[in-house]
Design a protein that fits this description.
Elements (H helix, E strand, L loop, with lengths): L1 E9 L2 E7 L3 E6 L6 H11 L15 E8 L6 H9 L10 E8 L4 E5 L2 E3 L1 H11 E4 L13 H9 L3 H45 L5 H25 L9 H15 L4 H30 L4 H20 L7 H62 L8 E8 L11 E8 L7 E2 H4 L2 H15 L7 E5 L7 H18 L1 E5 L3 H4 L4 E10 L2 E8 L2 H12 L6 H12 L2
Parallel strand pairs: 3-13, 3-14, 8-12, 12-13
Antiparallel strand pairs: 1-2, 1-4, 4-5, 5-6, 6-7, 9-10, 10-11, 14-15
Helix pairs in contact: 2-3, 4-10, 5-10, 6-9, 7-8, 10-12, 12-13, 15-16
Length: 555
């Protein structure tokens, strides 16, 4: 709750330090005394726009510091501070300070650590709930109505959130799998075509090297065969040198006995014939070995070229083609298995959705029952607040599926009709300022809300009413303060002021050309005098003081 507010150089306030406690605190004073200045100052630490007009004339800067203390730091505040990389010790008060310069610009601090205005605005809803004449936040904002109804109803949101998370996770997995299958299907025809092409060739590991070697051998053989053809006249035919050599040997054999040298010549010639015969035999064998099939060479070259072209097409080495085939077959198999997996994921998503819908329907039933109870509770509070002709309705609708979430399938909004026969409409569309504040008071009393802002402020909730209605407002404010812990009310009603546990009087005084606003915490005598002033006209009468005593005694 708010325990201290320190203001320096804000409009008419030069220096002011206020301490606040639990229960109902009331702020009173003449019209124009400066009650709105206090609210403007508090608004600065809650992230309102820093207007240079707030800086007191003659001062170079203004500052506001608000201290909040908690038995346990609210979760929303703890999370916001953690995200902002700020630490606060257990039991340590939360101190928010804002400075505004006269020449423009502002600074914000949280426990003396520099902070952004965005952080202040994030913290504000958990710190102060302000209900004024033109306030469009808090209970007036329909975006928060479902959460208020859930707190009132005790809706099992934890189960609903788990069911939603499970369904969302299942749908995400299903969507991812569908994308993969669709992508695979888009590639399926191309995969089939590529695989058919590869299967037709059926490449083997190491085949490129073998084909290249065979091709090289056949090309070499082709060249050497040409050379051998040119030598073939040496040993083939009757006019070949080798045949002539043999004829010479036979002729020499007939005359070799005639002279020793002829015998030696014959011996040499015989050796030559033998060597030439061996050469002939080897040449013939070489020719046989080098014989090649042009079709085989053409086939080898064709396959080699096809393999290399396919490798270029798939941007890989020829030896990688067999592995590529296996990969493609696996991808095609995965398409079929992916479709089977898709069926299982669709079943899981359907089951998760059914579980979520069941939890959401249960939450809907709880909300519908709570809405009827709340409508009756608010209706019971309206008559004492002079709103007996008004009607209140908690409208629960069903959202389209794209709007479902962790909160369920329901929308919720608080509606009112101020006149008999009039249609229901949102709070801020029908109610006047005074009516709106009283509606909000009735609603907060009926809700007996827990878990809202640490401090609740009502600004002139009693405007335009008096007597029994003002007394009823005061009684409900006191009751609400007892439930909520701390409530502050800016009031012109003595009946409301008399209900305050603490009473602050706001006054404006002028000295020459200087006007200042001050705030005083009243004691019992001061309270009596101030309430008597509120009851009197221009002059406080003994009768007014007696009436003030009766109001204070009746509390």
């Amino acid at each position: 709750m708010l325990t201290r507010l320190s203001i320096r150089n804000i409009v008419l306030i030069e220096a002011l330090d206020l301490d606040f406690g639990r229960g109902l605190g009331v702020l009173t004073g003449e019209t124009g005394a400066g009650k709105s200045i206090l609210l403007d100052a508090l608004g600065l630490v809650l992230g309102d726009r820093a207007e240079t007009a707030l800086v007191r004339s003659g001062a170079d800067k203004a500052s506001v510091s608000a201290t909040f203390e908690f038995a346990n730091l609210p979760q929303t505040i703890a999370v916001a501070l953690d995200e902002a990389d700020m630490e606060i010790e257990p039991g340590e008060p939360l101190i928010i300070r804002r400075q505004v310069k006269a020449d423009g610009g502002s600074k914000a601090f949280v426990n003396d650590q520099p902070a952004s205005v965005a952080l202040l605005r994030e913290l504000a809803p958990a710190l102060v709930e302000l209900h004024g004449q033109h306030d469009d936040r808090g209970l007036v904002n329909p975006r928060g109505h479902r959460a208020l109804l859930d707190r009132f109803a005790g809706t099992d949101l934890a189960t609903l959130e788990r069911r939603w998370a499970s369904w969302a996770r299942a749908e995400a997995q299903l969507a991812e799998a569908r994308d993969q299958v669709e992508q695979a299907k888009a590639d399926q025809d191309l995969l089939i075509a590529h695989l058919a092409e590869l299967t037709t060739l059926e490449p083997q590991a190491g085949e490129e090297a073998r084909l290249a070697a065979a091709r090289a051998d056949m090309q070499k053989g082709e060249k050497l065969s040409g050379d051998l053809d040119e030598l073939r006249h040496v040993w083939e035919g009757s006019d070949s040198p080798l045949a002539a050599l043999r004829v010479a040997a036979r002729k020499l054999d007939r005359i070799a006995n005639e002279h020793p040298l002829l015998a030696e010549a014959l011996a040499a010639l015989d050796r030559a014939v033998i060597e030439a015969g061996e050469a002939e035999e080897k040449l013939e064998k070489a020719a046989e070995a080098l014989v090649h099939d042009p079709q085989a060479l053409d086939a080898a070259e064709t396959r080699l070229f096809e393999l290399r072209a396919l490798a270029r097409k798939h941007r890989c080495e020829v030896d990688a083609l067999p592995e590529l085939m296996r990969t493609m077959r696996a991808r095609l198999d995965s398409i079929e298995s992916g479709e089977a997996q898709l069926d299982a994921l669709e079943a899981d998503a359907k089951e998760a959705r059914a579980a979520y819908v069941a939890a959401a329907e249960k939450a809907h039933e709880v909300r519908m029952a709570a809405a009827k109870t709340l409508d009756k509770a608010v209706a019971a509070e309206l008559a004492p607040l002079k709103l007996d002709a008004a009607r209140f309705l908690t409208a629960i609708g069903t959202l389209p599926q794209d709007k479902w979430g962790a909160h369920g399938m329901d929308s919720a909004e608080f509606l009112i009709a101020t006149n008999p026969g009039a249609d229901f409409a949102p709070l801020n569309k029908i109610a006047s300022g005074g009516e709106l504040s009283r509606f909000i008071l009735a609603l907060k009393v009926a809700l007996a809300e827990k878990g809202g802002a640490a401090t609740i402020i009502f600004d002139e909730i009693d405007r335009g009413v008096g007597g029994a209605v003002a007394s009823a407002i005061g009684e409900r404010l006191a009751r609400l303060a007892a439930d909520e812990g701390q409530l502050l009310a800016v009031t012109h009603s003595p009946q409301v002021a008399a209900r305050g546990r603490t009473h602050y009087m706001i006054a404006k005084a002028s000295s020459g050309t200087v006007t200042k606003t001050s705030v005083v915490l009243l004691d019992e005598a001061g309270r009596q005098e101030e309430i008597a002033r509120m009851l009197s006209g221009a002059e406080v009468t003994p009768e007014a003081r007696a009436q003030a005593d009766r109001l204070l005694e009746g509390v």
